[in-house]
Amino acid sequence: MRIAVVGTGYVGLVSGVCFSDFGHDVICVDKDPAKIAMLEAGEVPIYEPGLDQLMAKNVEAGRLTFTADLPAAIAGAEAVFIAVGTPTRRGDGHADLTYVMDAAEEIARNLTDYAVIVTKSTVPVGTNRKVKQAVAKANPKAAFDVASNPEFLREGAAIEDFMKPDRVVVGVQNARAGEVMSEIYRPLYLRDFPIVITDLESAEMIKYAANAFLATKITFINEIAQLCERTGADIKQVSKGMGLDGRIGNKFLHAGPGYGGSCFPKDTRALARIGQDHGLPMQITETVIAVNEAIKRRMIDKVVGLCGGSLNGKTIAVLGVTFKPNTDDMREAPSLTIVPALVGGGAKVRVTDPQGRREGEAQMPGVQWVEDPYKAAQKADAVVLLTEWNEFRALDLRRLARRMAHPRMADLRNIYSPKDAKRAGFEAYTAVGRASYPTED
To answer: Is the pTM of this model over 0.85?
Structure first.
């Protein structure tokens, strides 16, 4: 099939590359000429493991091309995917649909043959019907259908998620659109991956409900972690005991500094706003949002306590600033709350991250970027482990401690243990939902 993908951000680029690997003829279009030039040169503007090799493979095979010419991109396309940003709108928490509607209208004006216009972007319930109205208004003679096809990609594992999904969700209004979408995902159907065909509104809601539930799981275990600290329980043992229950499962039960990223914060806020607009407040989701913000602030208190109650004049080494490992994404990362607070408290902050510097330099002024954790720890008063990159999972803790002026660790991802830290020579250690020393009040 011939497929056009409008938008070469994270979702659009990963989707376009993977569709081409299915054997489809894919054109990815973007208004940014610099980004198109970069892609045509074989450079990937985002960090996603394996994406550069897969893109090069399909470009070489002639199945994947890039252009800034939208009319040329959609000419003859049987499906046109909208994969543009839907950031949170300032002031009211709604998803900003400006880019989606602009893309829909531009597609409409250039549509000459029948195509299914597919919304891949995360959009509020009812958006696809608005897209249909906008397309019909912009081009009354257009032959088209609309479909909702929300993405469920985890940054850092997006290719695996696309090729081996838990499920593919497709919302359509008629059999013709359903047939086109089924043909697009035929390679997955043949390998028995679940394809859920539903109506437009249900497909839109599935995306929000799924992300809000996962965010709730993360926030729940973080709140339990706080209680563990007060009662002497160990959150790692509690999480293990909970996760072995098949009704609960062990995923998203890892205590830490709160969720971040491009999806959970935006989607929980949007779902809360949808509920308010319909007179049905999403009380659990609204509480999750508030608690998650409080958790980030609580991490700051941990570091301050580790440093004797004051950050002024202290040197702090921060290991990891992206919202999760295996990505360069800084959106809504806990570090964007925690690091500025450390700087604001008078600390000299050194930061190291395998991929975070490109985005992080502009977003975290006043910090010093260094190449590795041992350089970051030189003469430091505390080290804060904030993102669980593999590079930070097997540190030589003795070496780290010896480099520090005052060997203290805030292990906000529970990678190590009090025993590990004490044996290595750390004079103080704090984690999330676990024992610390000296004992926290």
So the answer is: yes
- The mean predicted confidence, pLDDT, of the chain is 95
Catalytic residue selected from 28, 228, 263, 307: 263
Neighbours of 165 (CB within 10 A): 17
Q: Is position 222 within any domain? A: no
Q: Which element (helix H / strand E) includes 368?
A: strand 368-369
| 263-16-199-208 Cα dihedral, nearest 10 degrees | 0
CB atoms within 10 A of CB 217: 18
Is there a domain that residue 218 lies in? no
Contact 121, 81 (CB under 8 A): no
CATH label of the domain that carries residue 65:
3.40.50.720
CB-based burial label for 143 (10 Å; 0-12, 13-18, 19+): exposed
CA atoms of 97 and 108, how far apart (whole Å): 16
Q: Write down the pLDDT at residue 415.
A: 96
Domain that holds residue 130: 2-198
Whether residue 228 lies in the annotated active site: no
Cβ–Cβ < 8 Å for 197, 170: yes
Once rounded to an integer, what is the mean pLDDT over residues 357-382?
95
**Residues 307 and 422 placed together within one structural domain of the fold:** yes
